[in-house]
Amino acid sequence: MIPIAKPIIGEDEINAVIEVLRSGNIAEGQKVKDFEEAFAKYSGTSFAVAVNSGTAALHIALLAHGIGAGDEVITTPFTFVATSNSVLFTGAKPVFADIREDTFNIDPDSILEKITPGTKVIIPVHLYGQAADMKAIMEIAQDNDLIVIEDACQAHGATFEGKYAGSFGEGTFSFYPTKNMTTGEGGIITTNDKEIAQKAKMIRSHGSKQRYLHEMLGYNLRMTDIAASIGITQLGKIDDFNKSRIKNAQYLSRNLGNIKGLTLPHVDKRCRHVYHQYTVRITGDISRDDVVSSLNKMHIGTGIYYPLPIHKQPFYKELGYTDSLPVSEIASKEVISLPVHPSLKISDLDTISASMREIMD
Length: 361
Description:
With 361 residues, the chain is of the alpha/beta class.
């Protein structure tokens, strides 16, 4: 089987973990601080706050801005449910804007339509490794006095007009095993705001700046030195990982071009797309499910991200969401992701390409 994703864990990561285990300092400590400093420098921000998941990063970033009951947060329904669930955790209301057909990212025009007096935040998701239109989004935010919290959980190293994802507003990243880099589980918040960074550190650790002195309500959402040691090592490799993903994606696009009923990934010329996923659309006579089934029989892994937009999820329907977001709804029926990760060989890419041609032709 050619897997849809494959974490790359080598001797460097193993040795880094062993070093921490032997030190006896395995909870949040110096390694976490080192990782935060390194990730902030990499992302082009002043501060980074490491936590135990991407979901926690989103949740904390919202809380650090004082978001709560009565507030509205505009985001996309075409993403993992953690994006909007994090809004619900605070007591605020997610408001869904539709996506652009070409990039699958949130549509700035749809954002404008959703702004009300209760709107406080925009959460753009840099889906599949390509940044949303941050020029338009930041202009909207500035014109309407809104906060921007980027969901960059799939966009480590992605850029928009040369600027890194996660450096426009507050950034939030995930280090789940299938991401472009991993810490096993983990997340991080990036910011240029010292006060937000301090609040985030307090929220992740029971509201305290110093041990046993609690100034606000907080949680236990800390990262361990074990996870941070993996992160430090992976961060040193992320550019090479991304170069491989980009090279693999370009190879696939060259070999999958001109297939009837197959729409290849669109790359905004202002972006460096780091291909967390290589996502195509199946728009021909053959169904997406038949393509998935055929590829699996050919021992090629696939992913559907995401088969049901958030506003159509059972829980959100119970909450009263009845939105019509046609671009998101159509995309959810057509998208399929093919393997693009750095572990692929040219022979794997050739197999994927030949198999897709055989199925689609």
